[in-house]
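Hi U.,

Before I forget, here's the chain from the pilot set. I'm dumping it here mostly so it's searchable later in email.
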Amino acid sequence: MKLKIFLIRNVAMLIMLASTVISLILALIMFFYCSSATADNSLPLLIFGDTLLPLMFFIPALFFRSKFCALAAVVSSFFNIVLRLIAIILYKETFMPLDYQSVKLLLQHTDLQSLRATLGGEVLFWLLPIIGITIAGIIYCCTLTWKTADKSSRKVSRKWLYFFSFLLLLSLTSNLLFEIIKDSPGEAFIRPLPLISANFAGETIRKISNDDSIIEPIPLSVESRDKLAARHLFAESENKADETCIFDKIIIIAAESLDYAFIGHVNSAMPQGITPNLDNFIRNYPSMSNYFSAAQPTSWGLTAMLMSRFDYEKEQTMKNPSVFSAAKTRGFTSCYFSAASGFFSSNRMIYRQIFSPDICFFHEEFVLNHNLEIAHPWGLSDKDLFAAAFSELKKIRNKRFIAVISTMDTHPKYFSCDLSEEEKRLYPTPFLQALHSTDRQIGSFVKRIMDDKELFDDRTLIIITADHTATHGENYLKRSDFMPARIPLILISSRPEVFKKLNTAKFASSVDLAPTLLQLIGCQIPKSFAGNSLFSQKNLALIRLFGDILVLRSPALHEYRVFVNEPPRNDEDRLFQEFYHSLYGK
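Structure:
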């Protein structure tokens, strides 16, 4: 009975002790997760930084026996634990820090469809009850705290005040220390929660204050344009089309999250025979070996590929042409086929608005028109998608067209079909099975196209690429992050002479695909495009990271980062800041 009374009377203190210990453990886990990102061994002190806000409430609660402060301390403790758990999961899955940009990205790509796909079809039957029970538990603990915080007639022992005051001092020191060493490697990942919260508040206020602003690109100075032209950027003479249409039918396969290094032919670390069809295509057709994803995830990757621009979100408030709308002036019909739901992140509405395809099919349209079943957690399997896309292409076989087919099987949760027991043994993980299955479906689809004389002739071009590089999931490449990296670009046609002068080892990124396609069909390349034709002399890959960071990759630059909204460090920064502002303003 005495123990029971003790527990009830001291519930707030016990909850604070437990939650503080849990917070420290989670922060320590986060630190060790990020140990590869930072070489500063003094940083474990930062694990105390998370407890600042709960302790600021709890010490007055102890001293004044304030039930309001006790409640605030308990709630903020639970909030801390939830935030740090999110940070650990986010880093483990995507190597992204818990900051405004990454959470904004998650919110933009999270809805009921994506929850079902990621967590399983039964998500509503187990996730919502867990959330309800958790909330009820927090309310119950807070109620106990409210009722019992001032029932004890004894004053709190000074040793508890000293103990929690010492923790508060450590937490304050931790946050101050972080501000001193905040430029250390890995700081974005282990940032204390109070500073993350301050960052969220500042970015939110900044966003609200700029919500009604109109994006006005800033014209380049003549000097900057000349310097960029010397690097073969904005070199209009190199991007100029001669109005000769070489191809009448262009089919682009944008495989989900397909790293260049996932292909067995270019990475001996992959299991033998994992991608036989892609291996064969790379051996027999022109293929870029230093072609990078210009942006990610999918919507940003497609914006780079179809609009030769970087920022999917900002494009929704602008009126820039896409490769689809530009090709329409040359009599091309445009198609976008996706295995995913059109309701996911309102993609159907937004893609129609900014990409302007004439035909836009998501899995809902395929289910309605082709009587298909949803097999993959995200929608259609690659097998069904390719079969349905082939049927749709046959309907426009007598027209000029550009078609983009966006697959999904290599997106977690991974999906595979038609694998034998021997193949499952050779490729034991869901990712490897999905990769092998997708390779088979791509190979079968390309063969089917090439066998069809109405769809494939000397004026047909098939392109195999990816929407972006891997952004999460199985890290078979042992990368330290999931920043945009190399993706495949394979050009399949019966006319190898077209690509004879193409330097396949040059550095380029997915913003360079749209101007290349328009040049191949003799179409004027819009001035809004950020990329250059692959046939130009440019040897530079432009990549945009979240947070308005422009990354430059070339034979001379391993990775050079330009922070476009910060004071320039040198002339190189200033030049590419002007370049970016000429696209999206300040």
